[in-house]
Write a structure and sequence with these properties.
Distance between the termini: 52 Å
Number of helices: 18
Strand content: 15-25%
Length: 679
């Protein structure tokens, strides 16, 4: 491992695997209810699928670049891939132990038995046969293939298959239907003991009977993850949106980045399959009897027992929930929202009010990941239909959401909105809304700037902040950002907002340098940053410089972290924790001590090179003293988490924070914090 990272920078992809290990820790944590542990196994599996489709495919593409240029991009891609495979194998083994030695027995203790087809009773066999004949047989695709080096087989991306060698010279490929539930619950005789099986086992049992005349046929699971990059050849000419639309089907046929195979598959049959699939030993991961564990997000609970966490319903915003007009409220005072602790409804209400208010003349918004069904988007369409000047910037390069974003773009355009799609070589990742409203014959500006997407679904799962404001300088700056997006301005000269790729890096660097200067003067220097990821080497060097000057640096990093803390002469004044719990930590907060007069910012930008240099990001200062206190209170709670926080040390061992202080599970404590505000 030492050759892949040094004392200055931890390799980003290996660090991401350490984040996914933290997810796996939640599956192993007996303090979590049983079905929460199962959910974290599903999240771990889903995360790993995307990692292979995106990051591993990127590394493999780098292998094809000429060596001199490759050295500038990444260190020894073959060694990286080898280490990734090693770490994934370790985690997969841990995954298997948790599932087989802990989850399965605990399910049984609750009267829920997850059984294999080998353990079906006679009655269950009859039920499985009937289900296969009536529901599965007609929709199950089976192909018979010769065992020759010339014959190739295509396996669809992320789909589940069963494979069996039925003779010396042929094998079967069976595609498991996606239209049926992954789990089948057998009828219970006493409503106390319940038996559940995978649809895989229903198929195995019936197919083995069907093909048993050829030989003792054993069916084994198989799944392929394919390269998710779209590889648009030239983003700078022609219609980029149409090129992306045309390229989307390529995802289903891209290069294999991981081949998951049941380890019980005989080695000689494995070799036959590798040739037929045109993959190598490096591509193959022995991944257990069952794949697509993300399906466990819908694992049935046929009992009446409470086996999950108590739901934490979003709380009403104390000011915005029942107000007559959100515009009137914002006129008096900025409003801060924090999801999912508080409801996302005020954002929808703001857009609905704007759509129907005759005084509203202009609406501009950026959409990065749209919900499939969305009241917010319906309000945008209504605003355009009602004759407002509506401009929607849609980022169709938002990976895995391209199709949905294109769908909404067509709806907006149909209703009369101006729709602007992606720009070449840059993503618009900011979460911003701008409204102009005629008040006393003058145009008044309003803004909403957030850390998370305009998406009702993720607003119940991701922790994010949103600021509603009518502040003249902030709204004037935001108008300039939209002028850039509409190509009416090249560089936005903003006074309050930090805007990537124009000023964010420069402003953040200056803020760090100021803390360094304060420390050099013998004053207290303080930097507190909360982000999803920290990877940009230049910003990390700035934090190292701050540490060496004696600035206290506290970091809350959910995901990958390339900064190496605790190194003498480099980072001994830097401490990092990571929280993985009920909700996905997603908000970005930046706090600078400023000699006691703290400056706070929220925004969409992680300190990754892509966010600072290759994306449109917007970061806003928090100017209202009440809101500054709220954010600081929340950060203090998170910094004191000693239940779900892990220490990110130089080796990223993911040890839980342990101390003798009163137990603080930050997400539950923050929920109570906001609950008290509403009482």
């Amino acid at each position: 491992m030492a050759s892949l990272y040094n004392n200055k920078f931890y390799h980003r992809d290996l660090s991401w695997l350490r984040f996914n290990h933290r997810v796996l820790q939640e599956a192993a944590d007996v303090r979590n209810p049983l079905y929460e542990r199962i959910k974290f196994l599903a999240i771990f599996s889903s995360n790993l699928d995307e990692f292979f489709r995106v990051r591993v495919s990127d590394i493999r593409q780098i292998k094809n670049i000429e060596k001199p240029l490759r050295k500038k991009l990444i260190t020894k891609p073959n060694k990286v891939l080898k280490e990734i495979k090693k770490q994934v194998d370790i985690q997969q083994n841990e995954f298997g132990k948790i599932f087989n030695e802990e989850i399965i027995p605990q399910l049984a203790s609750e009267g829920i038995h997850l059984i294999r087809h080998e353990n079906f009773t006679e009655e269950q066999r009859e039920i499985a046969t009937k289900y296969y004949e009536e529901s599965l047989k007609q929709i199950t695709e089976i192909s018979c293939n010769p065992c020759t080096e010339q014959h190739s087989v295509f396996v669809k991306n992320e789909r589940l298959y069963l494979a069996a060698q039925t003779a010396e010279d042929e094998f079967l490929m069976v595609e498991i239907p996606e239209t049926e539930p992954r789990f089948f619950v057998f009828p219970s005789e006493d409503d106390k003991e319940f038996y559940i099986t995978f649809i895989d086992d229903i198929l195995k049992y019936n197919l083995q009977k069907e093909f048993s005349e050829k030989r003792d046929t054993a069916f084994h699971s198989l799944k392929i993850s394919r390269d998710a990059e779209l590889y648009i050849e030239d983003e700078f000419s022609g219609n980029l949106m149409e090129k992306i639309k045309a390229a989307l089907p390529n995802r289903d046929t891209g290069q294999a980045t991981r081949v998951l195979i049941d380890p019980e598959m005989p080695e000689d049959f494995r070799e036959i399959l590798k040739k037929a699939l045109d993959v190598t030993h490096t591509d193959v991961v022995l991944g257990g009897r069952y794949h697509n564990f993300k399906d466990f997000m819908q694992f049935p609970n046929p009992t009446q027992k409470k086996l999950s966490n108590e739901k934490l319903p979003p709380l009403p915003h104390p000011v915005l929930e029942n107000c007559n007009s959100i515009f009137e409220v914002i006129d008096k005072k900025d409003q801060l929202l924090h999801y999912p602790y508080q409801s996302f409804k005020p954002v929808i209400k703001l857009m609905q009010e704007a759509a129907n208010d005759p005084q509203v003349k202009t609406i501009k918004i950026t959409i990065y990941r749209a919900a499939d069904e969305s009241d917010l988007n319906d309000a945008i369409a209504l605003a355009a239909k009602n004759g407002k000047d509506v401009t929607v910037f849609i980022e169709v390069k938002a990976r895995f959401d391209e199709q949905n974003n294109l769908k909404w773009g067509a709806i907006f355009r149909k209703n009369g909105a101006r729709v602007i799609y992606s720009y070449p070589d840059i993503k618009v990742h900011s979460k911003i809304l701008y409204i102009e409203r005629e008040v006393e014959e003058k145009m008044k500006r309003y803004a909403y700037i957030a850390t998370g997407n305009f998406n009702e679904n993720t607003a119940t799962l991701y922790t994010d902040f949103g600021l509603m404001t009518a502040h003249k300088k902030i709204t004037k700056d935001l108008k300039k950002v939209f002028m850039v997006l509409e190509r009416d301005m090249i560089v936005p000269k903003t006074k309050q907002l930090l805007v990537s790729p124009f000023t964010t890096r420069e402003r953040f660097t200056a803020l760090v340098e100021r803390e360094i200067a304060l420390a050099n003067e013998g004053k207290k220097g303080l930097i507190i940053l909360k982000m999803n990821s920290l990877q940009d080497e230049n910003m990390i060097k700035e934090l190292y410089k701050a540490s060496n000057a004696g600035v206290e640096v506290r970091l809350l990093i959910r995901g990958m972290c390339s900064l190496v803390p605790g190194i003498e002469g480099q980072s001994e004044n830097i401490s990092i924790t990571s929280i993985v719990d009920l909700f996905l930590e997603h908000g970005r907060i930046y706090i600078f001590g400023n000699d006691g007069d703290e400056q706070l910012f929220i925004g969409s930008a992680d300190w990754m090179t892509r966010n600072l240099t290759h994306r449109i990001e917007v970061v806003t200062p928090i100017l209202d003293e009440d809101h500054k206190k709220t954010i600081r209170d929340i950060i203090n709670i998170e910094l004191n988490d000693n239940v779900k926080a892990r220490i990110i040390d130089a080796e990223q061992k993911n040890e839980y924070v342990k101390n003798s202080a009163k137990k603080v599970q930050s997400q539950l404590a923050i929920y109570e914090y906001f609950k008290n505000l509403t009482e």
